[in-house]
Specification:
This protein is an alpha/beta fold. It folds into three domains: 6-173, Lambda Exonuclease, Chain A (Alpha-Beta Complex), CATH 3.90.320; 209-256, no CATH class; 265-467, Nucleotidyltransferase, domain 5 (2-Layer Sandwich). Helices cover 37% and strands 17% of the residues. The protein has 18 helices and twelve strands. A six-stranded mixed β-sheet has the order 1-2-3-4-5-6. A six-stranded mixed β-sheet has the order 9-10-8-7-11-12. A hairpin with a 2-residue loop joins strand 3 and strand 4 (90-96). The two termini are 50 Å apart. The structure holds iron/sulfur cluster.
Length: 468
Amino acid sequence: MQKKHPYLRDKLSIEQRAKFQRGTNVGVLAHEYFPGGIDMSPSSPAQFPKKVQETMENFNNPTVNVMYEAVFQHNDTLIMLDMLVRDCDKWVAVEVKSSLRLSDTYYNDAALQYYVLHGCGVPLSDFKLMYLNADYVKDGSIDVKQLFKLESVLEYVVEREEFVRKNVERLKTVVALPHSPVVNIGTQCHNPYPCDFQGHCWKHVPKNSYLFTTALDDETLFQHYFNGVNNNTKMLQQLDPNSMEAQQIEALETSSYYIDYKTLYSLLPQPKPKSVAYLNLLLHRPAVPEIDGTKPYEEMILAFALQGEHENAAAMSSLQGLEGGMGSMAAANNCFVWNCFEDHNRWHEAIPILVEKLSHYELIVCFTPQNLTTTLLRHEIIQNREVGYKVFNLFDVLQQAHFYHPTIKRGLTLQRLSEAVFSEIKLFEHSRIILEATSQDLLGYQQAMEDLITENKVVAKTYQLFFK
Ligand code: SF4
C-alpha cells in the first residue's frame, strides 16, 4: 500500500506528529555528542539518490569524520543513519532513540541498518544505540555526554543479518507486484501497531459492525468474520443473548453505549459526598529535562482546571498570600485555572494552591488513565492516602463497569467518551499535546486552557449523568 497507493494513507494525528517531532528534537540534540559532522538530511524524498551519492563521496573523503543522517542504499533498501563516526580506518554507526530503555523494535531497526551498511561495504568497528539516561539530572546547560547512554548492539545485528536478508528478499517480491496484494482486513490491522491504511481498507465495514466490539478479542471476532458471519444479525445468532458481546452489539444497533449499571452503582462514592470538585491536570514530561534538578521525562504540572462550588472570585481572595509567586491564574463560573506555560520553572507553585483548594472538598473527580492519587502523592499535594477527600477516577470506574461504545475499540479516552455520550460536545484534547507541538505561542496556550476547562466540563457532565 505504501509503495503503490501512498495517497490512501490515513493522515497523521497531531499526537503522532508531536511524537515524531520529539524524536527529531532529541536526534538533533544527540548530534552534539559527536559535533562538527556534515548533515546529509535530504529536503525531500526526491533527493535520496543525490544524498546516497554524496554520502559515498564523504565516506571516501578522509577529512570527513562525522556524518548525520547519512543515506545508504543496498539491494533496493534505503536507510538514513542518525550518526556515522570515523574510528581510525573504520566507522561507528550510532542510532538515536528518544526513550529511556531499548526494545526489540530498536534492535531490529539497527539490524536492518547494519544489513545495508555491510552491503555498502562500510567497515564498522561498532554499532551503537544511543538512548536517554534515566539517571541524568540537569544542572545548568544540558551535558549531552551525560544525558545519553550508548549500548553496543554489534553482536546482535551481525547475528540477525541473515534474518534481515531473507525478509528483504521476501518484501521485495511484494513491492515488485504490479498492484498492492489483495489482503482481507484482519487482526494485522491493529496488531502489533494500528495500520495507517485502515481509513481505506475498512471503509466497507459498517460503523456499527460487531467487528468494533470489545467483549471478544480480535482473533475470535475475525474467526467469525472469515466463517461468513458478515453482519450483526448472524453474529447475534451465535451468541448467548445475555453475553456482554450480545449487549455490545445491541448498543451498536441502537447507536447507543453499553454500561453495566449494577457494577457502576456499586462503585458510587458512599456516603454521598457533600462537595464535589472536578480536577483536570495538565502534566508535562519533557524527554530532555528543561529545569535544573529534573531528569528525562520527569513529570511537572504545567496547568490545571478545578471546577467546584468554592471556585469563584471570593475564593480567590483567600489565596492572596500565595499570589506573589503564582503563575497565571483565573477563577470564574466555579472554575479555577492555573498555568505556568510561560515559565516552566514555576511549576512547583501549583502545589500549595492545589493543597489549599482540594481541602475544601469531599470528593475530587477526574478522568485519567493514570492513578491520580499516586500523582498527588508524588508531588506531595497529599502526604498520604488518609486525606480528607477521596479521589474518584472516572476512567477506572467506567472500565470496571465495562463501558462500551464503538469509538473506544482502540482504548478509552475522554475525547472518545465525549463522542459516545455527548455527541454535541466536540473535544480536541489539544491541551494534552500543545506542549509537544510546535505552536507554543499565546494563542496555543489560550487554546490549551480552554481545552482543560472544556474537558473538565465533560468529566463533570459524565459524573452527573451516571451518579446524580
Ligand atoms: S488496514 Fe489492514 S488490510 Fe489494510 S493495509 Fe493495513 S493491515 Fe493491511
